[in-house]
Design a protein that fits this description.
The chain has 228 residues and is an alpha/beta fold. Helices cover 31% and strands 26% of the residues. The strands form two sheets. It has a six-stranded mixed sheet with strand order 6-7-8-3-9-10. A four-stranded antiparallel sheet has the order 2-1-4-5, with helices on one face.
């Protein structure tokens, strides 16, 4: 099992009543499995993804990735582990505006040692070619279309061969053609043995996922079958 989430809860303080973003959530995701979690805005999806990726400590419970309990690790060790084993794809891309496509992809190596960084450049170029960005390799984000920015972000997420990919609304800003391209790359990466968890509010984005879940009020349950 690549991802095991065991009874995690997360509450945010707020004026008046605290907000229970996650309530005793458990989830398993195996290698080769493409999972999709959908739900309305504010239901806890993004909080779950950040917690699963080692970026947000839960109040209770455990998150285990590749047999490592993330929040039992010291912060520096957790950051180093995350750089090697977890790839993130976000709706807003989070590209560095003054860097080229190639250099944005290579920012994924910042948490790696010198030996790992030395082999990353060729891998970055190969991903850029695979994602149809070769003619944009020296362009900066402002010179790219929305779909090209998301493909750049996806290449960055996959650069270090992560065992777990977490995608937060990766098709939310895309037209149908670009959304299809991004989803296909995520599915293909899962077939290579990684675990992929897609978080979305769009039921159409979950149609080919092997594990379909929905979230409401900080809890998850099996999703309804996609429309035929």
């Amino acid at each position: 099992m690549i991802l095991r989430i065991d009874s995690i809860s997360k509450t945010y303080p707020a004026n008046g009543s605290p907000v229970e973003a996650l309530r005793d959530v458990s989830l398993d995701l195996a290698g080769g499995q493409f999972g999709a979690l959908r739900g309305a805005s504010g239901c806890g999806k993004s909080t779950l993804l950040l917690t699963a990726g080692g970026l947000l400590r839960p109040d209770r419970g455990h998150v285990v990735v590749a047999d490592k309990d993330l929040y039992a690790m010291p912060p520096n060790a957790r950051a180093a582990f995350r750089a090697r084993h977890i790839g993130f794809v976000f709706q807003q891309f989070h590209l560095v505006p003054y860097l080229t496509v190639l250099d944005n992809v290579l920012t994924a190596t910042l948490g790696l040692d010198a030996a790992a960084r030395s082999t990353a450049r060729q891998r970055a170029i190969e991903l850029i070619e695979q994602f149809g960005l070769t003619t944009r390799i020296r362009h900066r984000p402002a010179q790219l279309s929305t779909g090209e920015r998301q493909r750049t972000a996806l290449a960055r997420a996959l650069l270090n061969h992560p065992t777990l990919v977490l995608a937060d609304e990766p098709t939310g800003n895309l037209d149908q053609d670009n959304a299809t391209i991004v989803l296909q790359h995520l599915r293909d990466y899962a077939t290579e043995g990684a675990a992929v968890l897609l978080v979305t509010h769009d039921p159409n984005a979950t149609q080919e996922a092997q594990l379909r879940l929905k979230m409401a009020d900080g809890q998850i349950e099996p999703d309804d079958p996609p429309p035929v």
